[in-house]
Amino acid sequence: MSSAAEQEAVRAGRAAEQGRPAAAVNGAERLPLWPGAPTPLGARFRVGPDGVAGTNFALWAGGAEGVELCLFDADGVERRVRLTELTHEIWHGFVPGVLPGRRYGYRVHGRWDPWTGGRWNPAKLLLDPYARAVDGEFRLPPEVYGHVRDWPDQHVADTVRDERDSAPYVPKGVVVHDDDDWSDDRRPKTPWADSVIYELHVRGFTKLHPGIPEELRGTYAGLAHPAAIEHLTRLGVTAVELLPVHQFAHEDHLLKRGLRNHWGYNSIGYFAPHAAYAASGTTGEQVGEFKRMVRALHAAGIEVILDVVYNHTAEAGEYGPTLSLKGIDNRGYYRLQSDARRYADYTGCGNTLHVVQPQVLRLITDSLRYWVTEMGVDGFRFDLAAALARSMHDVDMLSPFLAVIAQDPVLRRVKLIAEPWDVGSGGYQVGAFPPLWTEWNDRYRNAVRDFWRHALPDVREMGYRLSGSSDLYAWGGRRPYASVNYITAHDGFTLRDLVTYERKHNEANGEGNRDGSDDNRSWNCGAEGETDDEGIRALRRRQLRNLLTTLLLSTGVPMLVAGDEMGRTQRGNNNAYCQDNELGWVDWRLLDEPGWKALFDLTSRLIALRHRHPVLRRRAFFSGRPQAADGLRDLAWFTARGTEMTERDWYAPAATLGMYLSGRDIPGRDERGEPILDDSFLAVLHAGEGPVEFVLPGPPWAERYEVVVDTAREEQAEAPGAAHPAGTAITVPGRSVLLLRVY
To answer: Which pLDDT value is given to residue 13?
Structure first.
């Protein structure tokens, strides 16, 4: 609609709203209401009959007996209108004169019967599940709960309905204007095999960055700032994976301790960018700010992947607050136990969305398509994805959710990453997701951590993980890039803490250090925590170089965590989900320290090396078989003696592993149909405490070798490095990696 036509429609809409008398019906003020349409769900500003502008509201509430739309003026005055149109369990209506920026919510009427799962309570103002912007903070006073939270007998408190109005204490949805044109945006469309993922937190990454204006720190605009993007491009990553940016709420137990949910794995609005990360405003402005951030990252060649939490919501279990879905249709949205008062909990967060239900599946897929088509994102990482793949009870790789994703013309084309487990029985599903999906590979994480702390009984596991985890993914047409290789993630120790602490130190969380994993597979190099011992400090920095070099030389898709490339620490906290402070933010002063700046430079150099050499980012699994008459293979493994490993060697205790990657045997062709040829490399990984003599294999493997990376060195030599004839026994220092180019 043109600007002039739009302005005329807006004037007509205001006239329509003001030109009708208001009347009280059941205590609610009557507003002008036209039938509207049942689709799309949510609040959509548009031009209605006779060129009148207004907003169409549509809400699925299958078991409800009635729905009131509640509109809020700028001064907070509430006006209600009862929706009378019901189409296929969707309540809908068009209200003329309701313009972008207007705040709204719903009150849903129905039977209060927790014993059968019915928790309708019209005293509670509910957030529209399809709200595309949210204004206001979630607080959790007793009024926000559908039941009487402070009932004397807590065993039955969830069965007693609370009649107090929650509207003053909950945020509202905001009507948003769809006025964006993405014609100037160019998605990077980085192939999976070429991807390097960088997991970051919008607020934590930008909050302390000295190059970002203070008013933009902690926001989408801050991440879009040239200073933030310059760090990403210097590092060389191809995608940012943003910790949850869907609107989320803080848990009650955190608020009582004066803390907040920092990570955001407590979603309540699957269409709305989290308002607290917006610098421009929260009455719809956050939507445009998020889109501008995506455009800026795309312009720099960086994709945007969202970490999404569709497995549960912030409404927790039967004793949790009533914020949205619980009050719209509790039985329709959540998995309930046979005792329908109770929730099935496969997530550890109190509830689980019932993805088998068509309306829940529609909510999730509508949300995913919205973020791709209207917000410009390039993919998703699904938190506890196994919970989404459950049919009625068991994880099922033919489940409705996975089937719908596989055939959806929008979603099957974007990057899909599974966290392939949940906390329920049979929930661990690493290697089981179907083609189209990649997976967080925790077996890679565990093997690499154990190797570098010298805790593996042999090197079999390490061989599989370095070469793409074919034992997990070489089926059904899957490729090595089905494995997202990582050593650290937001959940757990930072890379620096992994070599600094053997025990978690989560006292700041206020949970008696009981939270967080006890299985860290870490090694503190001889002292718990920070130390002035320069020998230990140097060893820790070397271990960081070893870990990062291993990650970036491995076949698969590497994922880094923001700050690991420059020694970020959480002081031993391995569960900093509630630390919205310096503990949870990236400390950019580290780049001013020579040792940590050198770590950044090495990481950047390794990523650049990976981008230059297709042998390090293969699109097909290694065969391990001779490809030519000379007996050279695409992948070969060597002992420190310079001999190929036998089956006996794989089962023997060892601290040293040589991996030969042939650049002349890369399957596939380039864009012009030509064979893909590259340099060949030998990587020597030595986790032993002392040095080892390693004999460099002779022909047909090589005539000579040139050192490219030596993690025993704090500062890396500029290429070309030291050269060694084949057959030479070279000394590999204790706990180090040598990468050599083959000639």
So the answer is: 53
